[in-house]
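ok new one. same drill as before - structure tokens go in, u give me an amino acid for every spot. 142 of them this time. try not to just spam alanines like last time pls lmao
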């Protein structure tokens, strides 16, 4: 197995774990049944602003690290620095997408309704699905 294939395989396994975790957050919330109570709108707006900022940073870092490194790896598959940058960019983007879902968990735990917290969960899960690791491995499938 080439280093690129190994990196892609480990990134996909890690990605699967990151996709499963928001559903585990939901299971925990369903088991604990946190009581719904009014959450100050300023807190919801602040977390929403933070989520938009997190998503923006995620897109910026993916363009700078993941996309740029993937293009380098297409031309020179033995570039270990580009492979390391690609791998770290994937992990950072997974973490940023996961944090959006985590904000939904926090809001629900503080008493927000599912209508509010669910938006954060959906956004985090959709980001994780959109940021599935892809890499053009020579002689393999991406």
């Amino acid at each position: 197995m080439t280093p690129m294939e190994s990196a892609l395989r480990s990134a996909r396994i890690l990605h699967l774990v990151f996709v499963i975790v928001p559903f585990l957050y939901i299971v925990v919330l369903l088991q604990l049944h946190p009581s719904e109570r009014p959450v100050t709108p300023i807190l919801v707006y602040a977390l929403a602003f933070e989520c938009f900022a997190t998503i923006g940073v995620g897109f910026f870092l993916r363009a700078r690290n993941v996309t740029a490194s993937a293009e380098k790896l297409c031309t020179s598959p033995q570039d270990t620095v580009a492979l390391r940058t690609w791998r770290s960019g994937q992990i950072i983007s997974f973490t940023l997408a996961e944090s959006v879902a985590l904000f939904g968990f926090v809001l629900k735990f503080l008493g927000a309704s599912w209508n509010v917290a669910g938006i954060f969960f959906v956004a985090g899960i959709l980001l994780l699905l959109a940021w599935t690791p892809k890499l053009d491995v020579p002689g393999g499938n991406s």
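Helices lie at 3-32, 41-75, 80-110, 114-130. and btw The mean pLDDT is 93.
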